[in-house]
Protein 1
Amino acid sequence: MKLLKIVPEKTNIRFMQWRKVSFTAAILMAIASFVLFFTVGLNFGIDFKGGTLIELKTTDGPANLSQIRSDLNGLGLGEVQVQEFGEPDEVLIRIENQGDDEASQQDVLSKVQGVLAENVEFRRTEIVGPRVSGELAWVGSLAVASSLIMILFYIWFRFEWQFALGAIVTTFNDILLTVALFCILQLDFTLSSIAAVLTIIGYSLNDTVVVYDRIRENLRRYKKMTLVDLLDRSINETLSRTTMTSLTTLLALFSLAIFGGEVIRSFVLAMIFGVVIGTFSSIFLAAPFLILTNLRTNVFDKEEDEAEKGKKTSA
Amino acid sequence: MISAPVIREPITGGSGQISGSFTVEGANDLAVLLRAGALPARLDVIEERSVGPGLGKDSIDAGRLASLIGALAVVIFMVLAYGVFGVIANVALIANVTMIFGVLTTIQATLTLPGIAGIVLTIGMAVDANVLIYERIREEVRAGRSPIGAIDAGFSRAMGTILDANVTTLIVALILFFIGTGPVKGFAVTLMIGIFTTVFSAVTISRFLISLWIKRKRVTKLPI
């Protein structure tokens, strides 16, 4: 059987010669993401804003959205959003936060059940009070920040500071772009989205670490090679693996996006985006970043010398 | 008695969590009763989430279907790309997923949708360990090593990379676990279990099967 080889056995692509283009593109996209974040902004779900979310299914055919909307607006609950959710008989209702009082937040549901009692099945309700939502937002940001710091130290410990910095800059760029995606598509930004962002961090780092690992190995093996050649060589050597892993992960994710249902769609969409940019950034950002840090090609010699010395003294 | 729900954790920080099987209406009634009840302290319900049986079943069904199709796609792809070695990777993958479900059942974890997403992601990434090893073996074969030499070198050289890559993911999963609540925590648990079973199945099961196959067939040229 002829095996499927998506990347040819020997590639010799000069990735580093595009580094000026890729750096410029990365910086421009990062700026654009910041602008988007502060102008368009994220569409925070109830997890971070507080409020009520109700998913219901009408039992007598397609839902009459405008009827539901006018029924709910009659309740005087502030901003109410009514939208179709996946199927014509499924409806998603979002009701804004009811001030600082936790109790009035709870009353929303009984009021809604009062007007929409007929031919309706309540499938999911989520009520998040104003106090919790503030906490959840804090915890989410804390999770992202602390994982970045922990990883910075791990890579510093395992490699060199240049690699740690490169990995963090690359990952931060991936997070920015993912946040920009949420801004552009106005996807609901919820707790699950934080999980998606963290998974993207994990995946992007995974890719970066594999490439860095090969760079470290080659730095030890080819002492005379210039850094640019060495980086190109390392990326070409790991290119087949990078492509294969991204493809298998994307296969699994696309199946989730297509068959996994409406509830996790925005979560999966963010991850698909993250896997794609994570793959590109490990090649076009993480590796060339090492050139910027003035990484010397003998950076790993010192520890080997010390290891040799250790051997001699113990022998 | 109105209901016998579970209070998940001791109420220490001034807030606690109650979970159980209610109807959507029942959960709201309970929230109302908690507020009105004759408890020595004033209780505010600050967060309430409930999923009706219809939606719960629909979304679990959808998740299951999606996982099955995703896994099948990955399995076929691996055979196309690596032949016999792909089949071995798939055996390791099946063992891996079985282990994940075994652990999840043992610790009685609630399988949430993000949890299922975590498993699917693990499927995608589990093959990564095998891909790393196989690509390395290909390189060693190209460098002119004998089949057994290439396999040995492939496994031992890929191991460092696999460890580094998985430790970084583990760090993220651990932080998600300690900081996250509800669905995020569920996702972290499956991701963490997935990392351990992945590393284990890639280095033990795959390696064992490959050496068994080599001995049986006495191969002189690796079909990779």
Note: Strands of chain B lie at 6-7, 18-19, 47-51.
Protein 2
Amino acid sequence: MILKGRVWKFGNNIDTDAIIPARYLNTSDPDELAKHLMEDAGKEFPSKVSAGDMIVAEANFGCGSSREHAPIAIKAAGIQAVVAKSFARIFYRNAFNIGLPIFESEDASGKIKEGDEIEVDADKGAIRNITRNEEYTAKPIPPFMQELISAGGLIKWTKKRIEAS
Amino acid sequence: MTITEKILAAHSGKEEVSAGGLLNAKVDLILANDITAPIAITEFKKIGAKDVFDKSRVAFIPDHFAPQKDIKAAEQCKMLRDFSKEYDLDLYFEVGRMGVEHALLPEQGLVVPGDLVIGADSHTCTYGALGAFSTGVGSTDVASAMATGECWFKVPESIKFIYYGNLNKWVSGKDLILHTIGDIGVDGALYMAMEFEGETITSLPMSGRLTMCNMAIEAGGKNGIIVPDGITEHYVKGRAKREYKFYSSDKDAKYAEIKEYDCSKILPTVSCPHLPSNTKPAAELSSVTIDQVVVGSCTNGRIEDLREAAEIIKGKKVAPDTRMIVIPATQQIYLQAVKEGLAGIFVEADAVFSTPTCGPCLGGHMGILAKGEKAIATTNRNFVGRMGHPESEVYLSNPAVAAASAVLGRIGTPEEVI
């Protein structure tokens, strides 16, 4: 799977309140949540983001609450993938469980700038910066997470297990 | 093995596990609230399971936007009630019987030492104070576990935090954990177990232990945990609804790191905007004026916290330009506070005394900040916009500092008002 898009760059410790403020959590409708994605992050992101864009951030992306509304909103806004130096653990689980592609890469996170055009080869874990003509590597996705991805997320994986038993 | 490894091993039918290993483990209790359960319910129905794995082990607690704050929140809360009726769940807590989930479940003896608990709420790590392994997950994890009774885990590495020395006056579990997060940072324990021990912890009451484990997530931790002892036994005896088991860490257990803190050097501590790790002694922040004070939440909404705040504010008044909101975390705490006269102390001081809710902690309702307003709260997070307007500010503290700040109308220490 090759994902290609324009980058929105964020810093360290982007918390789930910044991704989707709690005041909008009286719904779990993905499209409704997507409207408020990164609303408090102090950028033009909400008005200018378009489907196919990418998010690149520094360390500890998605820290704070367990709200699955965060990766749901990112996915529903059409963001193809999130690349960060590291992810908070509940966000990391949630992303794989719902099928939002995420990649950990120290190198990429440090060098990619806002507006860059990048291409991610999800199978190889290779990230190419088209704008700067640079290449970075992402940490390999653990085998179990790959199993989740190929099953189509945790719900389909669980469904299969129940049907098989 | 560490206590964390032992509990994970026992729940996955293994003799031994070690950090980094991946396993499927049986869960003893699953919980979700009015924000996270609706997604879990929708996803659970997609699995096509005939029933939940055990109707006595799925707890649905409407607490975040409850009492129902608007129509949408009411619809979400109703999903919990409808599902609980449809599947005949034992552990559904209607408004009037509910409380802030992480205060309610230990209080009611529904989580016990040795348990493995998952919850669709990041502060599920609170129950480590009882010697349980408990961690926050997402709604989809909860949906899957509701069907199978199992959840996948990576065995975390553990960091040992040793606390020694006597606590200074007005220093409690909250200050110890804020100080620790200030030291290691908001991702200082990312993916890891935080095991708290030492002579100070041995004499720390259960309320302080619950506060410490509650905030393990604010350092990125997977779980906070304390090896159970006499204080644990005293707390769970007569309360536990199930059999419990005390686990402890082996002498040769492996730790990624060991940190030590001399508690005699820790002062009442405040986390400044906009990260819990941005800590300073309360005494250095006297220039910060305060518009709102909140005493409550899963972190510090227990009876001991209310007593501490009441002791400071008794016979005094909240400053004229400040509002104070006191929120007992459960119905039982509420009733106890009424019986002990604490409710009267707060109301006579011009504070409001609210029904249990998470409310303002996450900027939901019951005390939202306007643009430019500043709050000091006994809650757990101070991210941008956490309690309201993106240009408002939240400072985190223990209940005594919060109450003193209410009287002063600015951040201050208990000594200044007593």
Note: The radius of gyration of chain A is 15 Å.
